[in-house]
Amino acid sequence: MNQHSAIIADDEENLCSHLESLLHKLWPELKLIGTVHSGPEALSLIRQEEPDIAFLDIKMPVMNGINVAMHTQGLCHVVFITAYDEFAIQAFEHNAIDYLLKPVSAERLMKTVQKLKSSLALQELNHPDWTQIISKLSSNLQNSEQTGYLQWIRAGKADKTLLIPVDEVLFFKASEKYTSVVTHDGEYLIRSSIKELIGKLDNNQFWQINRGIIVNVNDIASTKRELNGRCKVHLKNHKEVLIASRKYSSLFKQM
User: Which CATH code for domain 5-147?
Assistant: First the structure.
């Protein structure tokens, strides 16, 4: 039986390691030729080693995974890795191309492995109208980048790294060395400061209410102004009460 081979290309080294570990468990016979962290490296490795499969992160430096796929049409099976399901779901309706949403789960990867094994057994590289698919992906990627706002937060909890959709964040709260990311499901840690975050978030959705807190406006249930000019902010389905300083309390005049 021929041993199949693959490469992994993702600019996040820890995510490369995570995917590599899952593949070793779910598909031990698969030969992993190597992992790279940019588009040009991926393109070079594919042309040099001619793997059966390329796991390509869509957003990589210099050359994204979409352009890599465009330059390697027909050379190998492509599985895109993405954190942006708003365009992935639409773009990958074609059975010949699969996708994995970050953070990659063992259950979802197993489905991809089964699909790849079936195609490889038939020696098929069915790529119906690559041009159309690539064009659609590129368009959606550009739209995503044009917003300029964070869509996902990569945060840690214990020894795990998770990707959290920004829309699910209730508030960010600064501590001495870290910033807490609080959701309905729990609390996670990131290294970005409040000052760094506020410049990357949509200010129509996220408001800074004091030096150390940014709140998701969509999750505010009510506010109560105090005599000292500060404002208590009550959240939907969350017990913690946030305090808006006098400097920022004017944000809630219309509430």
Answer: 3.40.50.2300
Give the model confidence (pLDDT) of 140-179 as tens digits.
Answer: 555 555 556 777 788 888 777 777 888 899 999 998 889 9
Helix (H, G, I), strand (E, B) or coil at 227: coil
**pLDDT, tens only, 181-240:** 999 989 999 988 999 899 888 888 999 999 999 999 999 999 998 888 899 999 998 999
Percent of residues in the chain assigned helix, strand, coil, to nearest 5: 35, 30, 35
How far apart (Å, rounded) are the C-alpha atoms in residues 83 and 187? 20
Separation CA 99–CA 91 (nearest Å): 9
Note if the pTM is more than 0.90: no
> What distance separates the 2 farthest-apart alpha carbons in the chain?
78
User: For the chain, which residues make up each domain, given as ranges?
Assistant: 5-147, 152-252
Please choose, from the candidates 83, 149, 153, 77, the residue with its C-alpha nearest in 3D space to the C-alpha of residue 119.
77
Q: Which residues of 80-105 are buried (b: 16+ CB within 10 A; e: fewer)?
A: bbbbbeebbeebbeeebbbbbbbbbe
CATH fold for the domain made of 152-252 = OB fold (Dihydrolipoamide Acetyltransferase, E2P) (2.40.50)
- Phi then psi for residue 197, to 5 deg, are -65, -45
Q: CA-to-CA distance for 18 and 35, rounded, in angstroms?
A: 11
